[in-house]
Amino acid sequence: MNKLKIFIVASEVVPFAKTGGLADVAGALPKALAALGHDVRVVMPRYYVVDKSKFKALDGALGVDMGRDGEAWGLVLEGVLPNTEIPVYFIEHEGYFGRSGLYDAGDNGYEDNPQRFIFFSKAALQLCKKLHFGPDIIHVNDWHTAIIPLLLNVMQDSYFQNTASILTIHNLQHQGRFTKDVMEILGIGWGNFNTYELEDFDGVNLLKAGIVHADAITTVSPKYSQEIRGFAYDWGLKDVLNAHAYKLHGILNGVDYEEWSPKSDHYIAKKYTAKSLSGKKVCKAELQKIFNLPVRADVPLFGFVGRLAEQKGVTLIASEIWNLLEMDIQIVLLGAGERWAESFFSHVSDVQREKFGCYIGYRNDLAHQIEAGCDFFLMPSLFEPCGLNQIYSLSYGTLPIVRATGGLDDTIENFNPHANTGTGFKFYDATPKAFYNTVVWAVDTWYNNKDAIKALIKNGMKKHFGWDDTAKVYESVYNEALQQKRQK
Ligand code: ADP
Ligand code: GLC
Q1: Using a 6 Å cutoff on CB, does residue 174 contact ligand 1?
Q2: For residue 486, is pLDDT > 90?
Q3: Is the CB of 382 under 6 A from ligand 2?
Q4: Do residues 295 and 289 touch, judged by C-beta distance below 8 A?
Q5: Model confidence at 485, in pLDDT bands (50, 70, 90)?
Q6: What strand order describes the sheet that includes 199-200?
Q7: How far is the CA of 25 from the centre of ligand 1 (A)?
Q8: Can you spell out the DSSP letters for 390-425?
Q9: Considering only CA atoms, which of 471, 473, 478 is closest in space to residue 163?
Q10: Whose CA is nearest to atom 1 of ligand 2?
């Protein structure tokens, strides 16, 4: 087998810094690639949440050309992904990353985000040279690092002449759109500021540059790779994506079962397996206590964990919450995000103390406890590039209720009451009514068809979405991209 040198560049990586699924992927994929024998290294920014006392600093600093702003200097810290020998490098710059938020302070994003991530992207390339690590593959993720494929093509640096670039789109909604003066920071002249590359409505679009210049593009589920080529899900980029569809692949995310399995999860009240679900009952009772809800085994308990953003279907939940709570059910919600949603759901929990529990904020332990303790998991996303929580839910025997979009559609099979097949409950229209009806369907099944519930739990817990198989698909995309590169 051809052993590849792979450099993974990401703005967040589990367990060091996380706001969403990108971090889960950037923390898990390297392990699976290394297990296939590849030489994998990871680089991310050093935010304040990364405890630098645990890592050693490399000698010397990186001097990064920031165009109009002159040179910016960054230090590099070195660690490893936990329980592995995979090196992780942290690019440190007090001015850019010395703050507690990754991308924002709870609002629309830091104003200097273009500077921060252009600095990081350029520093990542310099780091390869500093390490004498000439990668076969540079794998970049989302808009934060999407400028790298363009930089590689523009620089024509002989050091990277055999390096292929792969861009993974985790979420097309966020594209790194900024005013055109960002060109002055990029420092590559104005030659690439045109509608086929960086320009977008007279501003720059970093993700678009990545789509155009990467040797391969991947999305995080097959269905999403199709959806984004059409009007409804393209966020304005369908023409660019269609023009580059020959190098677009949809690869479903995997799950790190070392983190997300009720067999071994150290955050939950009692571990359990598909064969013996008694621990799940303990987890349910414990979760009800955490949220000060009546401890009842008979009532169906629904959970939600996620960013309180429109993407996640929170408007559907908000529209129907009072109607849903008319039924004999309980709901717990963990999330942070849009201010209106935070205050709305807090208000609901004040009014409906016996039925609705809510925690506004970010808590990994509680996310695990919700996965284990609930009977059903709500994921009514308007769009979902992959979605991880519905897959985690399968592993915990918690039945997902999802809208049939993106990775949700790819991973969840709808319940068929005639054959007791399926792994969850699905709906199609992005309307409050369709969502409400599907929850009612689940509640009705809970109270009136216990056998079906048992069968669905069993079906879901049997499913396996391991990174091992997924890594092999990435491997073949990497090899294809290298071939593309060599033909150029
Ligand atoms: P996205 O990346 O779009 O936010 P995913 O489903 O891919 O959605 O991944 C979200 C990840 O972030 C999951 O691991 C989920 O458990 C976690 N998560 C989201 N919000 C919170 C929160 N408030 N507290 C703890 N974990 C959260
Ligand atoms: C994004 C998507 C989510 C996906 C995650 C990891 O944040 O919104 O659907 O699971 O990235 O790829």
Answers
A1: no
A2: no
A3: no
A4: yes
A5: confident
A6: 177-179, 203-205, 199-200
A7: 12
A8: HHHHHHTT-EEEEESSHHHHHH-PBPBTTTTB-SBE
A9: 478
A10: 170
Tens-digit pLDDT profile for residues 169-198: 999 999 999 999 999 999 999 999 999 999
| Cβ 370 under 6 angstroms from ligand 1 | no
- 335 CA: nearest ligand 1 atom: 23
User: Under 8 Å CB-to-CB from 404, ≥6 apart: which residues?
Assistant: 414, 426, 427, 428
pLDDT at 348 over 80: yes
* Span from the CA of 57 to the centroid of ligand 2 (angstroms): 31
Query: Among 388, 392, 411, 467, which residue has the most ligand 2 atoms within 8 Å of its CB, making it the best to mutate?
Result: 388
Q: Do residues 419 and 452 touch, judged by C-beta distance below 8 A?
A: no
Q: Count of alpha carbons within 13 Å of 171, Cβ hemisphere only?
A: 17
Res 1 pLDDT > 80: no
Predicted confidence at residue 106, as pLDDT, reads 78
Average pLDDT over residues 201-223: 98
Interior CA angle at 466 toward 464 and 470, to 5°?
A: 125
134-152 residue pLDDT tens: 999 999 999 999 999 999 9
Residue 253 CA: which ligand 1 atom is closest?
7
Contact 132, 194 (CB under 8 A): no
Domains of the chain and CATH, by start: 5-254+467-487 (3.40.50.2000), 278-462 (3.40.50.2000)
Q: Which ligand is nearest to the CA of 221?
A: 2
- What is the rounded average pLDDT of the residues 280-307? 98
Beta bridge partners of 426: 402
Q: Nearest residue CA, atom 24 of ligand 1?
A: 362
Other Cβ atoms less than 10 A from the Cβ of 469: the count is 12
- Res. 304: pLDDT tops 90: yes
- Assess whether pLDDT exceeds 90 at residue 420: yes
Q: Is 187 in the pocket of ligand 2 (CB under 6 A)?
A: no
Whole-angstrom Cα distance, residue 183 to residue 191? 10
Beta pairing partners, 85: none
First-to-final CA distance of the chain? 24
* Residue count of the chain: 488
Ligand number, closest to the Cα atom of 174: 2
Whether 432 contacts 469, CB under 8 Å: no
pTM of the model: 0.97
Question: How far are the Cα atoms of 196, 229, 234 from residue 239, in angstroms, in the given order?
Answer: 10, 8, 9
